[in-house]
Amino acid sequence: xxxxxxxxxxxxxxxxxxxxxxxxxxxxxxxxxxxxxxxxxxxxxxxxxxxxxxxxxxxxxxxxxxxxxxxxxxxxxxxxxxxxxxxxxxxxxxxxxxxxxxxxxxxxxxxxxxxxxxxxxxxxxxxxxxxxxxxxxxxxxxxxxxxxxxxxxxxxxxxxxxxxxxxxxxxxxxxxxxxxxxxxxxxxxxxxxxxxxxxxxxxxxxxxxxxxxxxxxxxxxxxxxxxxxxxxxxxxxxxxxxxxxxxxxxxxxxxxxxxxxxxxxxxxxxxxxxxxxxxxxxxxxxxxxxxxxxxxxxxxxxxxxxxxxxxxxxxxxxxxxxxxxxxxxxxxxxxxxxxxxxxxxxxxxxxxxxxxxxxxxxxxxxxxxxxxxxxxxxxxxxxxxxxxxxxxxxxxxxxxxxxxxxxxxxxxxxxxxxx
Length: 419
Ligand code: ASP
Ligand code: MG
Known about the structure:
About 35% of the residues lie in helices and about 25% in strands. The protein has about 425 residues and is an alpha/beta fold. The protein has helices at about 15-25, 40-55, 60-80, 85-100, 110-115, 120-130, 160-170, 200-210, 245-250, 260-265, 320-335, 360-365, 390-395; strands at about 1-5, 30-35, 140, 175-180, 185, 190-195, 215-220, 240, 270-275, 285-290, 300-315, 340-345, 350-355, 370-385, 400-405, 410-415. Helix 2 packs antiparallel against helix 3 (about 60-80) and helix 4 packs antiparallel against helix 6 (about 120-130). Strand 15 and strand 16 form a beta hairpin. An eight-stranded mixed sheet has the order 3-4-2-1-7-9-10-8, sandwiched between helices. Strands 12-13-11-14-16-15 form a six-stranded antiparallel sheet. The chain has two domains: about 1-220, Carbamate kinase; about 300-415, 2-Layer Sandwich (VC0802-like), CATH 3.30.2130.10. The structure holds aspartic acid and magnesium ion. Aspartic acid (ASP) binds near residues 38, 43, 182, 198 and 199. The site of aspartic acid has 12 residues, from loops.
């Protein structure tokens, strides 16, 4: 069994769905478990529905209408008029309408998962139907029947044992199976999500549970690149990296693979291929045990819109284990992930993503016990396998506020000199 993952960009319009069919045809006769994300930017659209519904930021019905129209347009191009899929799409979306007609009863995170996970139901239903009618027989499987999680909504933790039992009980009737990425299900049968961009992780969970022979993530880039083309003109493809290197890159923020994807694959020695859905002949990146080519090409990871927070005890006492533990508890409480940290005698500095729904609350809380200063609009750049030339390349016209170096990795928090 192989596992394929198609992300939002690879299923963003009718032509890209046809392209998925083309890829699947090349693998005719093979057993493939296909994990699919929501189409295009649907997840962002559904997030706007939740924000409008829960936080009264905009009109939830109007936002939902946009999501509906986007899917109708795709379905119109893929199917004849009056095809049953239109009802299927409408019936799926009407469930959101029922929810948003009433006032929210659960927490924001709970309502978020119930609504936002619908994007993957729509994409998989549409694509499964399209493939079935175009010569690629497949079975749609609801991932909530086997991805079992706890109830930490928006960041659910997988119950591996239960999921393994459940996946083995599925009645599989086709060689090609299609399921939703990103979502899971609690023991009370409420839908959960695994965190933004979580479909890669779903593919890796499925591969782990079924001892798959490989996972392929189909992307709009030719493989894992040494930098995001958004920030860098000349990117190079990493032909081969180890699990370890991939995990480091993902951890530092390389957006090509979700950070949680690697571990399950590494545990079961399942290779991961990252390949282009555009140039199907091109070999992508292979990720496996072998570490020999890891240091051949330096990689650059940029995280923009960072806040550098500096925390000092009000009484000028030293930063010790005790106050560090309070500080960490505060970050944990607000579910803020620390991208980089450093301490001196009387202050502790952290660099975090500037998430508007978390950071003000965090800073407020930290203020209770400590003096807090913060700088916004920072960039955090990480260079793997750096040398002076690569550092010089990224720090032109930048002021460096904080710097950390280990043997393989250099990290800098910086801002434009003009600011
Ligand atoms: N659709 C979800 C998101 O956009 C999950 C994914 O694409 O991986 O975050
Ligand atoms: Mg994605």
